[in-house]
Specification:
By secondary structure, the protein is an alpha/beta fold. It contains 8 helices and 16 strands. Strands 1, 2, 3, 4, 5, 6 and 16 form a 7-stranded mixed beta sheet that branches. The protein has a 4-stranded parallel beta sheet with strand order 10-9-8-14, covered by helices on one side.
């Protein structure tokens, strides 16, 4: 990028639902917007989302992203396919560097999301596409009603998810990946009717099920598996700038999505553990409005009179 192409009023880092929604709003505010995206949106893995309004038959995550990207391109938003390697703050602007060059921006929105920690299933992507492996019970537990379901993960992550899933099925099994020593949690699980097995050794996938091989050499088959392995928050760029974070690595923001670094905003999964597209959309709208109001207004030019009048 050179010249005016190397500067934007607003740079959005991340092209998932949150980043694309922010771009739609800002472009419609007639702001100069650029997106830098590495093509790794977690939403692309969703086989079909059924909890987005307006899609009664659901919509695949990748299709949603394609539709939103088409919309932002029509609005003139520039999209750069790259990973941002560094983000620096100068006195009045940010400098984002990537493999193809660099870009200056007056405001930056981080919409970088999270990366799920995976279970020991080698072909997990195919299992996700088949609906055997699922990550968001808030999104799709309704589609797993009355199935035989396993929750797999460290006991501190898996307990809450197992209890949540008990609303949807009477056949819930928690398979820890560590030794389960929390007696109070075990009692809660037992009272709710959740089985707890020996720790996990490995997972195997068949056409219609996932088989768990346990350390005691027993085997169990499940129609649906929900990992509860935790995730890594992609907040490194904000950390480089010294932005405040939670103990879990989420970027701290205020009610207008502003971080502790002036003119740096965060939206979507990078700021919350409620990983929902609808939440990301709300964050995007709030941040875009705040940013628009924080920048000098770009008024439409006045029409010059030619001094003539008509009767």
């Amino acid at each position: 990028m050179t010249g005016s192409d190397a500067h934007a009023e607003v740079l959005i880092i991340g092209g998932g639902p949150a980043g694309l929604m922010a771009a739609i709003y800002l472009a419609r505010f007639r702001r100069q917007v650029s997106i830098i995206d590495d093509g790794a949106s977690r939403a692309a893995l969703i086989p079909r989302s059924h909890n987005l309004p307006g899609f009664p038959d659901g919509i695949p995550g990748r299709e949603l992203l394609v539709r939103m990207e088409k919309q932002v391109r029509r609005l003139g938003v520039r999209i750069v396919r790259a990973s941002v390697t560094s983000l620096e703050k100068a006195e009045t602007a940010f400098l984002a560097r990537h493999a193809g060059g660099e870009l200056w921006a007056d405001r930056v929105i981080l919409a970088t999301g999270i990366v799920d920690k995976q279970t020991p299933l080698p072909d997990w992507v195919q299992a996700v596409q088949q609906g055997l492996l699922r990550y968001c019970p808030i999104c799709d537990a309704f589609e797993a009603i009355d199935r035989r379901i396993a929750i797999i993960g460290p006991s501190d992550h898996a307990t809450g998810k197992a209890l949540f899933m008990r609303v949807y099925s009477a056949d819930i099994t928690l398979i820890p990946v560590d030794g389960y020593r929390d007696e109070a949690a075990l009692q809660r699980l037992a009272k709710a009717g959740v089985r707890v097995t020996a720790p996990l050794h490995r997972l195997d996938r068949s056409e219609r099920a996932i088989e768990a091989v346990l350390v005691d050499r027993s085997r169990e088959r499940f129609e649906v598996v929900y990992p509860a392995m935790g995730s890594d928050v992609r907040s490194e760029l904000a950390l480089q700038l010294g932005a405040d974070h939670t103990d879990d690595g989420f970027l701290k923001v205020d009610a207008k999505q502003r971080s502790s670094v002036d003119q740096l905003y965060g939206i979507g999964d990078v700021v919350t553990d409620l990983h929902q597209i609808s939440v990301a959309f709300g964050h995007a709208a709030v941040a875009a409005c705040a940013i628009h109001n924080s920048l000098p207004m770009r008024y439409a030019p006045l029409v010059q009179s030619n001094g003539l009048c008509s009767s």
